[in-house]
Amino acid sequence: MSWGWILPLYVWLQGGVAIGQWGVYSYHGNIRSVTYISPYFWCLSTEGVVVVDGETGSYRELHRGTGLLYNRPTALYGDPYAGWIFLGYDDGQIQYGESPEALSVLREIAVNPIYTARAIRDLHAKGDTLAIATDFGLVLWSKRQRRVLATVAQFPGIAFAEPVSRVRWANGRLWVVTSRGLFSLSEGRPWSGPWEKVSGTGYGLPDSMQYFGGWVETPQDFLLLFRDSLYRWSGNRWELYPLPPPFQGRRVLCVGGEGGGWALSAADVENVHFFTVRGETTYMWNPGATALWMSPTGSYRAVGSGWIGAFLASPKISVSTDAHQRLRAGGVTEVLPTPTGIFFLHGGSGFWGAGWSTDVTFYPHGAPKGNLLSLSLLSGRYSPGLTEAVWDGAHAWIASSSAIMKITPSGRVDTFTAYNAPFDGIFPDPNGKPSYMAFSSLAVDKNGAIWAVKRYGNRNICVYLPYRGAWECLPYGDGAEAILVRVDSRGYKWVLFVNGRIRVIDDRGQPENVAVHRSVVLGVGGQPLPGLPSSRITTLAPDRTGAVWLGTDRGVAVLYGDPFDGSLSLSVPVIENRYALEEESITDVAVDGQNRKWIGTQASGVYVLSSDGSRQIANFNTQNSPLPSDLIYRIRPWDSTGEVFMITADGTVSYRDWATEPSERLDTLHIFPNPVSRTFEGWIGIRGLSEGSTVRIFTPDGQQVRYLQSFGGQAVWDLRTITGEKVAPGFYLIGAIDREGQRSAVGKIVVTE
After folding, report:
1. Which stretch of DSSP H or E encloses residue 109?
2. 65 in helix, strand or coil?
3. How much is the pTM?
């Protein structure tokens, strides 16, 4: 067949994660610490690190995929004298260096067996010596010699090792904060002491430092924030500091600074005040500042908030990190990719959204920031505990504790509760309607019907009929909490209950007419499942061949055949003469576009198995990937792009793989990234292919450069020729033909210098 050379160019940037790369989706609204080491502002949030170039304003999020040891450091400090940034971690490791690309690692604390609790809480340097606050005590480290100088684990009046939460060089002393009080050591004394206790009776501050809020050295005083007020060290005790007029009688929130310059914020003062070493005062808007930093002259200023990120100012830029926030809240419990953007449900924490949030982020493809959709404001009803979501082609359907909501990307919401649907549940309101149903799972079938299951009530399997615009709750008396519903390639509905019972329903295209249904119960109270590794079934997932994968607390099993004709059989996959994942507690199973199985576990991260389960392709965990936790809650493949989202106990990440779902027919090619630099070292994705398609790449004069085979719905190209050489700059024609040789599609890619 001849190639019909037309040149449609379709650049499809969805999510922006390159093939073979990781994406980390973090909420950087709650800033814990800010600093500046030329040319970067550094911001430590509760979910990671952000850097902003103080000259150009360019914004980056750092994580394990970009050079950090872990996604969430526990401490941040900028040493203006050495020009180094320091990042401390929960396991005792410390990274330091001049830039994000040049970070070395200090491992002495992490590997030393005498440090029984190693988390790094704070750092501060003077000259060559870095003081490190840890959960075991205070560690002193020489920057020049790159070695530990001393460890102070006990302080006066404390018999055992004492965690140190904050540390500071100031006023000719080294100061530390512990749970037992405030201690200091005069410079020049041996590290072992004598240390002086400077809190408690006679010192003007109590031993309990629960309300400690920061400290700063000004040209005249050493100031400490405690219980909404500022105190100054007078030489032998703490005295109330006379606040500047705008702050008198106000509740002080934060104090910070470096090299004599200092900044102050209060809960009810509109602006943060920055006081320079020259006696000048400058201002920035106060978003309820929880972290402050400024250079001595005030040329570089940083304000961190607990809800809207950081505001940064230099002689060349004025930047809000909120302008780059993809997520608008934390506690992600579900990810729903759609053709126009990605929904992130901020249900809280854990499998069932224990944080009770009603917030949703919609992140449009290619947009600089996400949009916050507060379901409680949009719907006028508080329906927290967001658990699962599905896409029906135009709307996202979201399950919560007390309602099911249908929402558009623009934020239009329809809410279904016991007042407009036949939902039963518990905790009746004053009108006798149930207020709590705990909807746990959703699925959409080929006819567009929405299936929902819930944990509480007598009729826990419900279906929305789009042609009637109404819900039906089906009279299946399973007497248990339903936790999952999935639809297989035959249209069968598989419902999993908390006791391991499975009900399979064939509605024969009439969901509301139970009389014509076929239904069978598997496991508890029904047809036995001999050979099942454990009766505790935790999840299930139909694959693309009609098989159904079961996850248990002792590995996985697969159901083959039809549950309604007696051909159902169970098999346990075997890998290298062992039952697959037999020692793992499975939390989720997902199927990607090439029918491979992505399996989440309770303690070992994510496993990727071949389509038939006979081979382990990968195991992603916290030691070899940017996964922030080995406890996996959910896995959500995005079949259109190959990106697989993984929701963990400590955050959400994604990995963009080669496998995408094959198109039913070869029509249009989607090429990404395009245009691309010749120096690009990743993979070019060519999507939109049908199963078994072949791809040829040509120069404009018809010389073949490369021949590729599709993998699912995608082929990948490394910008090399058949002989392995990098292609020259220019534009190239990409032609695809389907397996039958009946359909073709053409695109082009531009390769720049």
Report:
1. helix 108-111
2. helix
3. 0.87
